[in-house]
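INTERNAL AUDIT FORM
Audit reference: QA-55
Scope: verify that the stored structure record matches its stored sequence.
Auditor: D.O.
Record contents follow.
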Amino acid sequence: PWQSQYALQQLRECAVKGMWLCLKNLHLVIAWAPVLEKEINALKPHANFRLWLTAEPHLKFPLVLLESSLKVTYESPPGVKKNLLRTYEHGVPSLLKRDINL
């Protein structure tokens, strides 16, 4: 699909220019992860290049990507109410400007 080609194009461009790139939700495209892994291994990146990958745990996530990465974990706050508030704060800030009684 065009999204994978666009992601690879952005990866190459950011690596050359020393920019930061964030590829999100890789657990949704596990079949594409080996392509990404191969592309990352072929890069000759600028010293300032940084690549952020986000994913939920998945049994088929490539181990080489995991082993060669610095891992940062984020755990959701306990409870449905706090979880929803966190989601809305980070995803839909305009909704929080309203008077919401949860």
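Auditor finding: record pair retrieved intact. The longest helix spans residues 2-17.
Action required: none
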